Amino acid sequence: MTGNDRRVAIITGGSQGIGASLVAGYLGRGWAVVANARTIGPSADPGVLTVEGDIAKPATADRIVEGALERFGRIDTLVNNAGVFVSKPFTDYTAADYALLTGVNLGGFFWLTQRVIAEMMRRYGGHVVNISATLAEVANSHAPSVLAALTKGGLAAATRSLAVEYASRGIRVNAVSPGIIQTPVYPADSYEGLRDQLPPLGRVGQVSDVVAGVLFLESSPFVTGEILHIDGGQTAGH
Prior knowledge:
alpha/beta, Rossmann fold, two-stranded parallel sheet, 5 helices
């Protein structure tokens, strides 16, 4: 596809790990991609526009949307992948921790999704995918994470609310809820201590598992308001 016929995805946190693999996954399907991260360099691929900036700031959301429309003329999908995780006992969290997690995990989602949905309504259609987390639903005493549960659980609730609010305007909203996922940021041996916490499938998930889930939702036009758990059965029980 060429010109305005090529579908366009915005992916936040697109410089490494799951985000970088999502960029590659959408490119592999012939899409153009707008990739955002706090630090990200320009791409040599004409089908990729990079936008550097802190997603917690509304001005960054403005630049992402303006850049997407100027370069590609449309926005078809937004993947709210950017997120931060801080594990601490509840009483040890600081004001800085609270500002960081709510700013990125909730503020980043809110400001950018608001602007993207406004544009999608003009085209009568689009898709938003939020990256939540299984730990928001299945607490783990080995990894106290109230702020992650608060913010990522908020994304799951917002997913259902937005799906219902905008279904009549052709906009789908779904979420992917990963469990323990091995990313390139951490060496494989760093997961050895998690063996007693593995889900029923008995292994740590891979980045490719999450990408496959997002692309499944992308290819499922009758699915909206779904929270797709990619956690090896963790939410099902032990």
